[in-house]
Every structure is written in C-alpha cells, then in structure tokens.
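Anyone else keep sequences and structure tokens together like this?

Example one:
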Amino acid sequence: MLVSFTSRYVLRSPIVSVFLLYPARKEYADALAYRWHQRRFSWQPGLVGFYRQGGRYGLIFGVPNLEDDIRAEHNAPQLHALMCRMDAAQRSVGAARKVFAGILPSMFSRNGIENEHLADQRYLTARAVLQALDQVINQHGLGKDVPILVLGGRGYIASEVLRLCGGRSVTSIDVAEFDRFRAFVANHRGQPAVVVNLTKSGALLEYARELWPGAIVLNEVYPEPSAAEIAELQARGASCYHIVGVEGKAWPPFPRAYRGGIPCCASLPFSPDDPIPILIARLSRP
C-alpha cells in the first residue's frame, strides 16, 4: 500500500522500474539499522527511496543482507523468495521492469532464477562501461589502440563487455590467473594502458600493487574502491576512475562515490542508438 501511495500521490507519475540494492559493506548496514532490525528484515525488501531519470521514475528497495549472504549456496531458496517479493513490488505499482545491484543479477542467473530484464540490464551496463572507457581514453589523449586489460573477464558483466568490445586491443584475465596479469604488466610497464576492474569488492588491491605511472584504472565494481586501494594506486602513480552511473537524481541521494547520479544497474533503458549520459569520478591521480 505504501508503494502504491508513493506512486500515485507523491510522485504523481507512473513508476517505470523497481530497483533492489544491498549494503556495500557491514559498516554501511550498521550505520542504517540496528543489528536486531537487520535480522528481522533479512531478505525482506523495504522501500528506501526513489529516483528520476529524465521524466521517468523508479523506486529503490533495500535488503540488509551482505554479499557473503547472497553468495552462500545454502541461501539459494532465499534468493528465490527475494525475486518473488520483488515481483510483487513490481506488480503493485505496475512497473515495466525490475533491476538489481551488485552481484544480485549474476547470483540469480547462477541459481536459475528467471527475470526477463536481467539480459537487458547486463547489456546496458556493458554499454555504459565501454562508453566510460572511451571517455577516459579521450581525457588522456590516448588512441583507440591503447592496451586494455579486463579484470574478471569470465564474470557476468565482463563477458558481455568483452562481447561488445569490437576491434579493441583487449586482454582478459580471471580469478587465479595472476601469472597472466604479471605477463601483461611486463609487456606494457612504462606505457599507457587501461585496466578495467570488473572483479569483485576488495580484489583491486592485489593488482594495484603491480601497476605503474601512466596506468589508468576504470572501476565498475560495487562498491567503489576502498581507501586502501586508492592509496595504493596513488602510491604507484596510477590514475583511478570510478563509474558513478548515468545522469539522474535520487532521493535520498545514492551514497559516497555514487552520489550525483544513478548507478548503471538501476538505469532506465536507452535506445541502442542513443549515447548513455555516463558520469565518472576521478578518485586518484599521479
């Protein structure tokens, strides 16, 4: 009832999308709710805000569960129940689509949980990553032939990015392929190169220790790089950019490095022929 009331009397506009997020880290969850409250509402989506992209609106829902909960095999039934609850929220406001933050889309896919919008969300996010990549390359005055390394190349979003890469000079590595990463470093050290981080939260630090002045990191992983990761990149003389998302407004604003935009995973659809109004933030510089 609250969702319907928000749509009809507060926004006075149809809701196009419902979006589900989760706390990026434990301290985020603790800052928002008491531990007993987190346990009480585990796997229960609650309305936490709304956003506007152009003249279209979406509702933001949240659950207190962290990535370890979402990845755990024994929680597969909870993921099924979570999708059913978001189906109900979507129906209650007549939204055309439902979308999900972070690792939720890949975990739904891994567990055989169907959602007709996951493929569209994956494609749109991959398009946004490539547009952000072009933006960073242009800002540094580099050519289209600049070497690009994709970290986490077998991942849910990364595999779609690689499919759309076209004729770019791209190397891809995945987990446990650090020898291949070191080979890329040895071949390109001292030259401009772009490292696109599509791995998982916290994984960037190990790679950052091997980078060099002139290397550029573009992060798509949720959440944004930690203070330790940024400090390591700064110490190595590497630049770091974070994909904020697309142009739009949210109430309350998305936190920290996502403030001022709409995360790509929450974005409303764009025509394949239209450029995506992508926003990036520079987190470190040489």
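And example two:
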Amino acid sequence: MTRRLAVVSAGLSTPSSTRLLADRISDAVRSQVGARGEDLTVSPIEVRELAIGLATTMSTAGLPVAAVEEARTVVERADGLVAVTPVFAAGYSGLFKMFFDTFDPHALAGKPVLIAATAGTPRHSLVLDHAMRPLFTWFGSVVVPTGVFAATEDFGAPEEATGLGRRITRAASELAGLVVATPDAVAGFTPGDPAEVDDTDTPLSVTSFSDLLRGHDGTR
C-alpha cells in the first residue's frame, strides 16, 4: 500500500536549512515506512512560494486562491505531516502560522504530525514544545513524541557531536508507525456502533448526602 506524506517547509531563503532538514526527515520517514513493507509518496510544500496567495486569502476573508487551496488539499489528504519552520522571535515564522491559519479547525484532527524547527542557536529549541506542539494539539492532531531541532552548528558537524541523525531517525520511526497503522475502533466507542450501551431505561442510583456523611465523626 502507498501512503502519502505532506512536508511543509517554511524556510525563506534558497537554499534553506529549513528545507534541508525537511528533506532529511522525509527521507528518513520514507525509509522507516519502507521497512514496514509499504511505499511512501512525499509531497513537499514550500510556504515561501505561497506568500502572495496567503496574503490574499487572509485579507479577503478566505477568498480561495488556487495555489493555497491545492497545498491545503495535499496536507488534508495526506496520511502524515512533517511541519518544519525557522524560528523568529522565539516562535514559528509568520508565514508558517499564516498557512495553518487557513485550515478549518477540524481539518487536521487525528493526523500524525512530526514537528521540526531550525535556528541559529540551540537556545531556541523550546519552540518545539512551547509553540509548535500546542498549535497542532489545538488542531487535534497526533504529534509524535520526538521533535527535531537543528541549530546552525548541527549542519556539517560530526553525528557523534550533535545526535541530529539519531533524533531524525527516532522521530521518523514514530511517525512511520502511526502512518502505516490501521485504526481499529473499539466496540462501544464508535458513534452509532451497535455495541454502544443504551442505558436510558436503567434507573439511576444516587447516594444521598446524609448517607455519605453517616458514620462521619467530624474529626477529619
């Protein structure tokens, strides 16, 4: 079976360290999905290329722009998402946020997401848990436990010195496991499931307040 992975990269330059990190992660996810016996189609989305369309969309009360609609559809239909942003002023970039502001609040519910970020120094690494993870949690997405942060010094440095490759592999493995998993509903928990318990005719037993206090000596 072929799975679909959307990779959103919000780097502003060409070439971009953000895109470089996104490519390394998507290659790792493809390898991990392949190790599980399935294929993966990767669809990269450069948010920088959507800047004008995003500005139009946001300033015209959601007037559809073809390029933005296409990118949004790719993300919504994907089995998994990799979201990578550069860090500005201790947070994700404005273009990154603007892109996800165009989504319906329920569009990414349940979607497996791997978050990653790049910055000049390691002191910005908290952006993963203080900004990106809350954003996708609000959407109801399933964010993998391992986020990937890469500072400038991580690129080109020996792997044993940075551990970046190990973090990428671990995060990619977590995402691949969710992407290839087939969700099985538990009987009784799916709306409309015949096994759902109907207790409308069951009398409700309520313990009175006096019975709850019976035997209480007032010392505690």
